[in-house]
Amino acid sequence: MTLQDAHPIARMLILSLLILGGLVGQTLAADRQTGLQASQAVDLAELKTGLRQTGALGIGDKLSLKANLEGLIEDLGSFHKGDRGESLFALKARFSQLFDTTLAKVKAGDPTLFEKLTASRAGLWALFSHPKTFQAALTFGSRTQLVQRAEK
Q1: 35 domain residue, yes or no
Q2: Is 145 left (phi over 0), alpha (psi -120 to 50) or beta?
């Protein structure tokens, strides 16, 4: 059976789905490209220094952030290696929750860091979610002590 043999309504539905699928694919590709470009603009060392030096986070907040970030990076590393575990969707939800919690704590106490973090959100996720940029971040991270556990 070909598309021409299908009922006219079925044909219209199939064509609509194909067009929609193409548009969604183009949108996802554009989002991915935008994210990859944004990831190139993220200065991990500057963000790390800002988080370490800010008075907006207490020592407990900083230790918790470090532990949660290391755990997330370790799980992202496992995901990129193909290990069964959390989906990328679930990992993004963890990233978003951690990011939002950090932003809420930094917002009033350190507006400059808040702006830098906000501007880097898409780039950070693109960096972590794409296997090649994730690996580059790990390589860079060894210099900035970003992800000691994930490199093991």
Answers
A1: no
A2: left
Q: What is the largest CA-CA distance in the chain?
A: 69
Query: Which pLDDT does position 135 carry in this prediction?
Result: 78
pLDDT, tens only, 60-91:
999 999 899 889 988 998 998 888 788 889 99
- Do residues 144 and 44 lie in contact, with contact meaning Cβ atoms separated by under 8 Å? yes
Domain membership of residue 136 (yes or no) is yes
The domain of 137 spans 41-144
Residue 107 to residue 102: CA distance in whole angstroms: 9
CA 25 to chain centre: 19
Q: How many domains does the chain have?
A: 1
Query: 27 is written with which tokens?
Result: 């949108």
- Global model pTM greater than 0.90: no
Whether residue 128 lies inside any domain: the answer is yes
- What CA–CA distance (Å, rounded) separates 104 from 120? 15
Q: Can you give the pLDDT at residue 136?
A: 72
Q: Give domain status of residue 70, yes or no.
A: yes
Q: What's 3's DSSP letter?
A: G
* Residues 77/137, Cβ–Cβ less than 8 Å: no
